[in-house]
Write a structure and sequence with these properties.
Layout: E1 2-7, E2 10-13, E3 18-26, E4 28-39, E5 46-51, E6 57-59, E7 67-72, E8 77-82, E9 91-101, E10 107-111, E11 115-120
């Protein structure tokens, strides 16, 4: 019913930048929050940044000031500009969307397939 497709990961040197993007498609009525989690090997999934439909944002302390989340409500997309990357930012980054479907009552959370970000020192 709903797909989230991510793009933009890769290998970058410390101090570098990437832009991650995620597009939601399918039988979507509306999207509430969108955002990004990440999971490094051997660690729990960590919330990185969220953005609501009205543009309010939240960031984890570890990325505040370096990452910027944005969204395009008309296109159902969310992006994450990641700057001043550090080796500890290496992880698989997953986008998510908390949304309402055309055919169902209630809200549901969908996930992207993940995109690898690797930061070399």
């Amino acid at each position: 019913q709903v797909q989230l497709v991510e793009s933009g990961g890769g290998l970058v040197q410390a101090g570098g930048s990437l832009r991650l993007s995620c597009a939601a498609s399918g039988s979507i009525f509306s999207i509430n929050a969108m955002g990004w989690y990440r999971q490094a090997p051997g660690k729990q999934r960590e919330l990185v940044a969220t953005i609501t439909s009205d543009g309010s944002t939240k960031y984890s302390d570890s990325v505040k000031g370096r990452f910027t989340i944005s969204r395009d409500n008309a296109k159902n997309t969310v992006s994450l500009q990641v700057d001043s990357l550090k080796p500890e930012d290496t992880a698989v980054y997953y986008c998510y969307a908390n949304l309402r479907l055309l055919s169902s009552v209630g809200t549901y959370q969908y996930w992207g397939q993940g995109t690898q970000v690797t930061v070399s020192s």
